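[audit] Reproducing an earlier prediction to check determinism. Same input, same settings, fresh worker. If the tokens differ from the archived copy the diff job will pick it up downstream; this log only records the rerun itself.
[audit] input (460 residues):
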Amino acid sequence: MLDPISLLTDAFTSFLFGKVETTRLPVRTSTGQAQAVYLPTAAPGLGDSGVIIGREVYSGKGYIYDPFQLYGQQLPAPHWLVLGESGNGKSALEKTYVLRQLRFRDRQVVVLDAQGEDGVGEWNLIAQQLGITPIRLDPMAALEGGIKLNPLDPAITATGQLALLRTIIEVALGHGLDERSGFALKVAHSHAVESITTRQPILTDIVERLRHPAEESADSMNVDIEDVRAWGLDVALVLDRLVDGDLRGMFDGPTTAGIDLDAPLIVFDLSHIDRNSIAMPILMAIVGVWLEHTWIRPDRVKRIFLVEEAWHIINSPFVAQLFQRLLKFGRRLGLSFVAVVHHLSDVVDGAAAREAAAILKMASTRTIYAQKADEARATGRVLGLPRWAVEIIPTLTPGIAVWDVNGNVQVVKHLITENERPLVYTDRAMTETSAELVGRVEPTEAELALEKQLADDAVA
């Protein structure tokens, strides 16, 4: 109840200015009902410049990501780790991401395609669509004039060649080279490179020098020539596998001429190599170092290096060390490394835990698809994910993933356009039986809008 003076004041004010306020009775309510008063809010996105991935699940906003746009502002490094069980959409994400990046003229992509079906790699359809022939590394094809990559290619520096030879041998042996074996390899490599000037030195030359070391190499160390030969015996036996063993043909000759390193997409088809054999990490090491010295150049082109089955790299201490250097070096020249791994526990609990941790630290972007609860908790501990994200990972459905971009964590649904659908299936039988069914399903408004925006945003 107002006092008499307040009533008199209100009456006088109303007489002069009219009634300016409606008196309302107070309303009692609960916090559950009152929260409807507040407008919905969502965490800020990553900006509107880059590649469209899909939309945020909780806010419905479009989700746009590009490591080259974000680097130096929101990202300390442009490298990206993709995790998750098979069948949840990792492959579709990688393929659509590459296709959308290639709409920009200053982009180049290399893919190490370690999975295959029907005798070809799973990136074969996309390569065909773009008019590109994959570089198929196959021991049997190499013997009949197929692709060869020379670890002693003159495009690779002498230091790089020696580091690559050591890595090949250490991966095959499963341990580091001792000083004596390392010395035998060093003098054999030095002698082969300096004495052969009319052609590319090849691995056969190194094996020959190891079996028959030069006298001066023994004299320089004041040891017997037979000692030097004995020191290099294990090294020669390992390299002989690449020359005359089950891996022969791919690396024991000059690099095949005509490999187009200026193509927008370069696919190395490794699907004919046993993924569980020691050949795979050796192969990835050779390809990685060869690309480091021949493909990455200071020409302001933004490059993406995508590796399927990347645990072959991260889980080997010797291969991981080579790629650590590549990643550090690549940041100055516009390289984004994309590693695709099924289980993080396979990496952090392996022989290369220290090297794996260093590479994971460089990956400022992490995309995690559905995992079992135990695996999700282990992943969360290693990557430092918030608790709510760890709890939601086991419940994710295919096509939805947790994205952690340097601490900006969102749940994102990947959207695929109708034009992309036929290219992203990894199971050929699935494609043949279900492509027509998929074609008969009406696309959603979000997918239609995405397809239109992708078409409109193509950079000339």
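[audit] rerun output stored. Observation attached for the diff report: Residues 261 and 295 are 6 Å apart (CA to CA).
[audit] end
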